[in-house]
């Protein structure tokens, strides 16, 4: 009895992985199931939201789209967990950005398997709002979550993609990396996307 109590008392404490960065957890994942679990739990909701937003171009039914997004999310994690060493902070930098690249590729692969084509036209026609950037940002910030979700869903695919990534907190450089695009293209798509959302908000107020 005494030996059992002593074993519990003096056993090494498990590290508190909640304080670890994504990159640290990814490095530990090959040997630590706990590190993998923390990382999956931390990032799954963000990746799922991104997948659902990208699948708008392939599925009109929200329930079907969510189920498909869950399936693709599962594939994303399986691809990484099969070879955790594929990610290297020295080569890829941000684990989250790298994971989103995998998620984007899963959507592209799914479209190809279904013999569907993701729309890639730029649709660079800016609404004639005569609003400055500050006013546009104010309209977006004032929108409810439901309004914003609906407005984002109505955007052209490439604009929806970059805006969703920006809302996830990625920098222009990271968005360009994830989407394999030039930073100037990303900036242009973001400007048009925000102008179109602002136009939707103005129209809703009339």
Number of helix segments?
11
> What is the CA-based Rg, rounded?
21 Å
In terms of DSSP E residues, the strand content is under 5%
Structural class: mainly alpha
Distance between the termini: 76 Å
The helicity comes to 55-70%
What spatial form do the alpha-carbon principal axes imply?
Answer: globular
Instruction: Profile the largest sheet.
Output: none
Low-confidence stretches: 5-13
Mean pLDDT: 83
**Number of E strands:** 0
The succession of helices and strands, N to C, reads HHHHHHHHHHH
Detailed description of the structure:
With 206 residues, this protein is mainly alpha-helical. 69% of the residues lie in helices and 0% in strands. The protein has 11 helices and no strands. The chain has helices at 2-10, 22-28, 33-54, 62-82, 89-92, 95-113, 133-142, 145-153, 157-167, 172-179, 183-205. It is globular. Residues 5-13 have low confidence and may be disordered.
């Amino acid at each position: 009895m005494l030996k059992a109590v002593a074993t519990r008392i003096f056993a090494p404490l498990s590290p508190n992985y909640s304080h670890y960065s994504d990159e640290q957890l990814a490095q530990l994942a090959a040997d630590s199931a706990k590190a993998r679990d923390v990382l999956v739990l931390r990032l799954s909701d963000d990746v799922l939201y991104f997948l659902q937003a990208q699948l708008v171009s392939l599925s009109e039914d929200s329930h079907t789209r969510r189920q498909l997004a869950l399936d693709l999310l599962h594939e994303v994690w399986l691809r990484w967990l099969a070879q955790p060493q594929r990610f290297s902070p020295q080569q890829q930098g941000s684990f989250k950005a790298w994971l989103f690249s995998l998620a984007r590729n899963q959507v592209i692969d799914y479209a190809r398997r279904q013999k569907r084509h993701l729309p890639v036209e730029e649709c660079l026609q800016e609404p004639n709002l005569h609003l400055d950037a500050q006013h546009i940002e104010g309209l977006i910030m004032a929108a409810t979550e439901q309004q914003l979700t609906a407005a984002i869903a109505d955007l052209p695919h490439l604009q929806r993609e970059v805006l969703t990534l920006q809302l996830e907190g990625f920098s222009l450089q990271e968005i360009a990396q994830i989407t394999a695009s030039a930073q100037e293209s990303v900036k242009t798509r973001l400007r048009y996307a925000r102008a179109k959302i602002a136009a939707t908000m103005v129209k809703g107020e009339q």
